[in-house]
Write a structure and sequence with these properties.
The complex is a heterodimer of chains A (about 110) and B (about 110).
Chain A (H helix, E strand, L loop, with lengths): L3 E4 L2 E4 L5 E7 L5 E8 L3 E10 L2 E4 L7 E2 L9 E3 L8 E8 L8 E2 L3 E5 L1
Parallel strand pairs in A: 2-11
Antiparallel strand pairs in A: 1-3, 3-8, 4-5, 4-9, 5-6, 7-8, 9-10, 9-11
Chain B lengths: L8 E5 L4 E6 L8 E7 L6 E6 L4 E2 L4 E4 L5 E6 L8 E8 L8 E2 L4 E6 L1
Classes of the chains: A mainly beta (about 110), B mainly beta (about 110).
Chain lengths: ~110, ~110
């Protein structure tokens, strides 16, 4: 089944403890992206990647890092999480051309205390 | 930045058609119009997208105004499983790295 897989689905952590949220897709998509969803603010893009070893900042990149060493994986790294990063996170992927839709993962609900 | 405007909520009856409107008056010539929906506790799900012409697929139809400043998502026969938040989104075109500009969506309730 074609899908985007995120892990973990739920995570509670403490301020300052480094964490990684994994994202993997099995559709050979070039484009991958991370979003966070907050009440009243909708989905906002954190980082995106147009292909392997090509990443760039979205609208809210502060406090996050990403890497794209392989086509299928696009992990989101929080080096020193803070409570304002408590949110629902989604990974998405697509083919690079503009006439394709996106496939989203099921989400990771992160709570930083 | 380009943006979309949708009603906060709409209601429909089961097995009736639903027309979900969206205004995007600042759309640029290369921007695609996307629709996604999000069921509770799930990730957004692709519904349909188009550039200039009306589009049909197994889930829905997309009617795009001639001036492209508005569009309508049409669910031909609503079912209870169609109750979700529907997002009208602009997919920025060439040179904008495929960025999606999200609004707050329309929450659709479907009555049995």
């Amino acid at each position: 089944e074609a899908q985007v897989t995120q892990n973990p689905r739920y995570l509670i952590t403490v301020t300052g403890k480094k964490l990684t949220v994994t994202c993997s897709q099995n559709m050979n998509h070039e484009y991958m992206s991370w979003y966070r969803q907050d009440p009243g603010l909708g989905l906002r893009q954190i980082y995106y990647s147009m292909n392997v070893e090509v990443t760039d900042k979205g609208d809210v990149p502060e406090g996050y890092k990403v890497s794209r060493k392989e086509k299928r994986n696009f992990p989101l790294i929080l080096e020193s999480p803070s409570p304002n990063q408590t949110s629902l996170y989604f990974c998405a992927s697509s083919f690079r051309e503009t006439n394709y839709g996106y496939t989203f993962g099921s989400g990771t609900r992160l709570t930083v205390v | 930045d380009a943006k979309t405007t949708q009603p906060n909520s709409m209601e429909s009856n089961e097995e009736e058609p639903v027309h979900l409107p969206c205004n995007h008056s600042t759309i640029s010539g290369t921007d695609y119009i996307h629709w996604y929906r999000q069921l509770p506790s799930q990730g957004p799900e692709y519904v349909i997208h188009g550039l200039t012409s009306n589009v049909n697929n197994r889930m829905a139809s997309l009617a795009i105004a001639e001036d492209r400043k508005s569009s309508t998502l049409i669910l031909h026969r609503a079912t209870l499983r169609d109750a979700a938040v529907y997002y009208c989104i602009l997919g920025l075109g060439a040179g904008n790295n495929r960025k999606l500009i999200w609004g707050l969506g329309t929450s659709l309730a479907v009555n049995p």
